[in-house]
Amino acid sequence: MVFSVFFPPAAAVQAAKVPVVYYLSGLTCTDDNFIQKAGAQRHAAELGLALVAPDTSPRGLGIEGEDDSWDFGTGAGFYVDATADKWKRYRMYSYILRELPQVLRTLPGLDLDNASICGHSMGGHGALVLALKNPGAFKSVSAFAPICNPTQVPWGQKAFAGYLGDSWQEAGKAYDATELVKAYTGPQLPVLMDTGGDDEFLKTQLHPWAFEEAAKGKLQVTSRMNEGYDHSYFTIASFVSDHLDFHARYLLASGPRI
Amino acid sequence: MVFSVFFPPAAAVQAAKVPVVYYLSGLTCTDDNFIQKAGAQRHAAELGLALVAPDTSPRGLGIEGEDDSWDFGTGAGFYVDATADKWKRYRMYSYILRELPQVLRTLPGLDLDNASICGHSMGGHGALVLALKNPGAFKSVSAFAPICNPTQVPWGQKAFAGYLGDSWQEAGKAYDATELVKAYTGPQLPVLMDTGGDDEFLKTQLHPWAFEEAAKGKLQVTSRMNEGYDHSYFTIASFVSDHLDFHARYLLASGPRI
Fold first, then answer.
1. ipTM of the complex in this document
2. B38: containing domain
3. Does residue A219 form part of some domain?
4. What is the CATH number of the domain that holds B106?
5. Which residues on B lie below 8 Å from A42 (Cβ)?
6. What is the count of structural domains for chain B?
7. Residues of B with Cβ-Cβ distance to A237 under 8 angstroms
8. Residue B203 at interface with chain A, using a CB cutoff of 8 Å
9. What pLDDT digit, counting tens, does each position of A190-231 carry?
10. Is residue A87 a part of any domain in this protein?
């Protein structure tokens, strides 16, 4: 598995450890898209935050049909642990939660016990699910155009039916942020979401209103609808500093380290 | 010819016209690289500057061998007007100076009489040459890792020999920033250059010191050597706001329009 890490200058100070923001990419992406297109590094450098960008699926496993679709298989792991026998080596949920941090602990400079998580589209879904299923594991969670209610939309239904097998409708609830937030009983979890009013997938795949409604009385959710913005990395680049500032509030007890 | 324009929000104000910063890309690039990878739009939006990113050559002319090299022909127009018969339709110098602005004048919101120019590598060469050959046409010029003395380095020699024909060694001086600055007699032209100390092309292709030496007593040049930075768009992303701030000083008489 390939991943990218951005170390801010603060991480080069001997004995210093910097907080970590995980960024989970969307369908078709690799670890490169965020690093090359979001323009996040300069502000992360100013704040003293490390950025970790994993890939979106295993690659090259040789599973029949793994490269047939852009929204299933390679580049589309959906951040679940597959239970369908054919796809059982697709375990992106466990990878992000446990295996990747274990690898990161072998690198100097990262304070892995002080982490937040964000993501885009399929990765926004992944960030919300990982944070909601593991209370306390992440100090805050944010998402750009997340797939908020995957059991109810085509992308999620296709992925869950493939990865979770015949009982996906029930099993999928365990990976559906809107279902998870209804049952959430953990500590307060700050949530920031930005979605574009001109996002071509807003009404068919994203459904931020479903999550907002389900989170009422459970979590403090800031969900912004940004008119004129679409599903692209230009939108992410427009708001990524807001998201880093948001996470910095919870990760940096003593304020930004410039 | 394809080009990209970023209009800042200030350009949407009725009757407002915003200054223009041209960005010329390097070898192998299209109009897309800067727009997708440099992360310049947000700061340009804050300053109220439009960004214009042209392509780096004509494409698909059907000239024999036009796609054979990554450093000559397609994607490598070198911002000259070719005189060699075979390449006479390669006229990137005139395109940037005259044809592109003519097209841009048909779009609303751009103050084309208030423009600056910058570029990267081959595009840094192009920006310096266009500014030095046309005193007063650009309020300021800046470059990331420019090819400063192309008649003396392999990239420039290959390009000039191909585009300018047998007499390229003499003809090339008219497209060599180090030669041009020696003879410059125009009004003061502010110059900012950023080059990476770890740029893999620094000693073989860029030669910023040649330009710095030639510009002494002619122009006020700020040329920074940034240790640890390479030839990539990550370097551009690190310094692009500095360059926009620099141009804004000369383009915005009344200061940034936020």
1. 0.89
2. 3-252
3. yes
4. 3.40.50.1820
5. 39, 237-238, 241
6. 1
7. 39, 41-42
8. no
9. 999 999 999 999 999 999 999 999 999 999 999 999 999 999
10. yes
